[in-house]
Design goal:
Helix content of chain A: 25-40%
Strand content of chain B: 5-15%
Strand order of the largest sheet of chain A: 24-25-21-22-23-20-27-26
Largest interface: A-B, 27 and 31 residues
Distance between the termini of chain B: 16 Å
Shape of chain A: elongated
Number of strands of chain B: 5
Structural class of chain A: alpha/beta
Largest sheet of chain A: 8 strands, mixed
Helix content of chain B: 40-55%
Number of helices of chain A: 11
Strand order of the largest sheet of chain B: 4-3-5
Largest sheet of chain B: 3 strands, antiparallel
Oligomer: heterodimer
Structural class of chain B: mainly alpha
Chain lengths: 624, 201
Amino acid sequence: MTEPTAADPVVRRARGPRFSVIWLVPIIALAVSLGIAWQTYADRGVLIEIAFDSASGIAAEKTELRYRDVTVGLVEQVRFSGDLSKVIASVRINRDLAPYLDEDADFWVVRPEITAQGISGLSTVLSGVYIVGQWDSSPGTAQTSFEGLEDAPLNDPTEEGTRIRLTARDSNSIVAGAPILYKGIPVGNVEAPQLAESRDHVVITGFIRAPYDSIITTDTRFWDISGVSVSLDTSGVSLNFASLASLVQGGVSFDTFVAGGRPATDAETFPLYADESAARSSLLSDPTAERLRVMVIFDGAVGGLTEGATVRFRGVPVGEVDNVAMIAADRDGRKVVRMRAILAISPARLGLSEDDGVDEAMDLLTAYVEEGLRVRLATASLLSSELVVDLVELPVEEEAEIVMTEMGLPQLPTIEAQVTDLNATAEGVFQRINNLPVEEVLASIQGLVDNASALIASEDIRAVAPGINATLADLRALQPEVTETLANFRSISPEVNATLAEFRTIAPELNETLDEATATLEEVRLIVAGLRESGATENINNVFASAANAADAVEAAAGELPKLTARLATLASRTEKVIDSYGDNSRLINGALSTLRDVSEAADALRSLARAIQRNPNSLIIGR
Amino acid sequence: MTTARQAGLIACVTCGRVEHRGALHCARCGDTLPEHSRRSLQAVWAWLVAGIIVYIPANTYPMLRTSTLLDKTESTIVGGAIELLQYGSYGVAFIVFFASIVIPIGKFIAIGYLALSLRRARPDRVHQRHVLYEVVEFIGRWSMIDVFVVAILSALVQLGSVATINPGIAAVSFLLSVAFTMLSAQSFDPKLIWDADEEPQ
């Protein structure tokens, strides 16, 4: 076996790179790995720190940071601040959002919440709490450390809208978050009321979202819709409350009743009226405009005059009472206490133009006073004791003019209030009511009632009651019978008719029979008389024979009599039955009854006669 | 006994034709002849390095992204194994740890050792090293068990918002790492272990 020889070598110089191309693989792998690593690093967010008062469910590596409901970050670490007063959450937030995190950024923790306006944050029950970040869309000086808010801010700073400031005497029941409604639609919220710097009123900041903010002009009126208002006036009772939410946390409504105001600027201040009617009645007056303050002094009782009461001129509100106070004054050498009221009158409502100010109004009033303008109190309505101040024009009886007082306020002349007149009238009415013989009427009513009770209580009435009951029961029991009877009556009536007809046909027969009987008796009498007179024996047999004949005839007649009698009796009983079912009421039946009774008697008489003849036929002859 | 190497011959692995050493291509089938030189080790090293490089992100990046209704978690290989351990699934934890950590790292070490051992002029324990090579070749594919688990889980658990499992970057990296080390092991010519003994003078 030969050794295997190799084939001729095809030798080619092994050229080629010193390093194999295979090295490209780890190089590419390295490049890709580094690329991924770098990208990861580059994508890694910015670490910011948010300080909260309490962690309240924030968990590291779990709690998310959301912006407009998009997750943009994750809490990496939760730790305490140096003095343990705060909890600091380190949040890794998307790098591209970092520039927007300037001092305007707000952070708060969303938790499930149940408020009067609804339930919010319900999703956090399942998913756990999350942090919400809110910032505007303009990049600013980026910060990395923030203070977290305890609660969600009421208004989103990124939202378009207008801020307003409302001034009110007190915050009433308006709390933070109370809705601002426009025709019942929530268009914004208010923030917590704050005491003004002057400490005599409160300022409520509100926010009205676009596009509703365009409704607001300088003429817009805001009013409080908190709680329930019940008002009783000439138009009746009205109960108002806007919504359940406003019942609990208050609310503000607004409307622009007139056109013409300029659009409101941001943070414009508006007065907050107590209710819609107040807002409406304030419509014509610009609350910011200067008002003419005048003083009036009343002698009489001004019990119903309150601050804010209307001042009317020719029935139109032109201002309000600013202040009511008691003052001691000298009159006729002795001290008297009088009422002083300061009225604030709007020049604009007196018909003066906007350019005219207090001085023009003063001039106008002065002129009017010379013509007889006086101030007097009047009741606002018949139902309330509330008073209003009326500026009335009366025929000039005594000259009066506006005097300047020491307080620097002009004093208007007053006249006696109309209130007293009304009171007098009312008194008269009451007097008349008083004079009504109420006592006597009551006494007589009392007597009547007493009598009635005595009567009711008396034994007789008591005793009658069971009787009535029994009677009623009987009647009730009788009812079916009556019904039945009526039915019978209805069915019987033809029968009765027939009977009566029959009876009618029988009557002549009866008469005939009676006539016959009478004739027979007459004959017998004649025979007996003949017998007595003749006394002839010869004829006696004939007589007896004829008497026997007569007796036979009578007997035959009498033999027929019971039949007739029985017929009459049956007829009578049938008729009786019929009549019974007729009842005793009608005259016809009465007549029929009496006829029948007669018939019955006749029948009886006939029967007894027949019986007597049968028993004692010779009585016909003897005459007994 | 004379070996082919000692005779200065080389066989084509495709058709079996014997060529003289130094030839680049088989005269019959034209295939490239295996290079029994240290230069062939370059491929081993290159694949090994690539495998190690991609093994790093495989361990640092998340392997699984699990999102359920309430939670969203990302777990790395080691993290997953630890989690399993905490849940008390010791067996599964051990398998995951063994298949994903012990085997790949053992493979790196083994291949590195084998490649390095060729440098020595007179290597010893030739048989043991060959056995080691066989073990590495055999066991290499089993590292894929992790990728397999991820692939199956991702395919099965797609329940919308209730529960979803998606593979992370690490899954790809790990897959590449296993593939590269397998290529590395395949590039290693076990004949070299023996050749070191029999270098023709």
